[in-house]
Every structure is written in structure tokens, then in C-alpha cells.
Amino acid sequence: MIRIVLADDHPIVREGLHALLETQPDFEVIAECATGEEALRTVIQRQPDILLLDLEMPVIDGVETTRQIQQLTQHPRIIIFTAFDDDERIIHALQAGADGYLLKEAPREEIFKALRITMEGGSILQPIVATKLLRHVGQQRKIPTQSTPPPTPIEELTERELEVLHLLAQGMPNKEIASHLIISERTAKFHVSSIMSKLGATNRTEAVSLAAQNGLIRLRA
Questions:
Q1: Range of the domain at 197
Q2: For residue 123, which of 66, 156, 201, 205 is within the disulfide window of CB 3.0 to 4.6 Å?
């Protein structure tokens, strides 16, 4: 059972999403929150598996809520679920530590899939979000001005790490990566950790973003 907390300041959105998620036998909505502060408090008290979080939240917005939750010793996986699709919001949310980014217009099956993939340790970006992320990456890779320092060189990835990285970019959790490459799940986890360390990423989604920014992979639009 995947234990989920919903955080959105619109009661109708929460009620509709709650009803939708509970049509699935492996989902359990354990709490609803109307503010970022309430979401943070609920995460600490209830220890959910996944927080489905809107960006526009009273008291503390979604990005800051994500950032504070990531500082907890134990924290859930976080999927941003919002109507906002501008580049800056996406980047800030991923940099804060979000594991995925879904738009509220996403089909129900895509929402279900995102929750299950994220629970297994994967990450999810909708095609439209990936497209906007690519555009941001393209802008970042333009020739820097005198006031903008060049990007910090990253440590070179091994051939095996590059294989793992490409599977990581597809949203695969460690178990699927291990099965695909015929290695143990522990070895897959080791490679993922090494990739994140070399790229200077704090989570899998940020690792994919940084890898694209450094030309190591190409995200599919």
C-alpha cells in the first residue's frame, strides 16, 4: 500500500484527487493539507510514502515546503502536482528536491503511473515538462557573459554509469535498472549513487537534469 498525503489549497481539487486515487487498491490517502506549513507538519507526524504537492500554497509555497522536507532525517518522495508549467518554477522545484513534476491536466493513468514509479525509486517528468527543461538547459549552455562564470567541470562517468544514467533518464527504479543490465539491485543502487555524486545532484531527477545540461544525455520531448 502506498500511503499518500495531498497538499493543495483548493478543497475541490483535494476531494477530487482523493476520490480518484482511492479507486486504486494500492493507494491510500492518509491526509489532506491546505497550506505548506500544514504539509510539513503532517509529513513529520504521519510519515507518508509520497507527498503530492501543489506549488501555490499559503504560508509556505511548494518549493520551500519541498526544501524543508528534504532536510528531514526521514522524508517522503515528493511529486509536484500543479497547473504551473513555466520553466523557472520547474527548475526551482527540481533543485529543491522534488522527485517528479506533473501538471494537473495529466490523464489519470499517467498520475497513477507516476506515483508507482516514484514509489519504486524512479522519477517522472511529463513530456511537456521535459521539453521546457530542455529549453532551460539549452539557454544555460549558451556562451556565458563576462559576469557569468563557466559551469563547474564534472567528474567523468564510467561506461557502466553512462548505461545506468540513460535508464535513469527513462524513470526506471533501481530494480528495473538491475534487471535490464543483468546486475544486482545493490550494484545498480551503487552506480546511481556514484552518478549523483559525480554530477553534484541531490536526487535522481536533478541528476537527469544536470546530465542533460552537460550533454551526457538527451531528454525526450
A1: 145-213
A2: 205
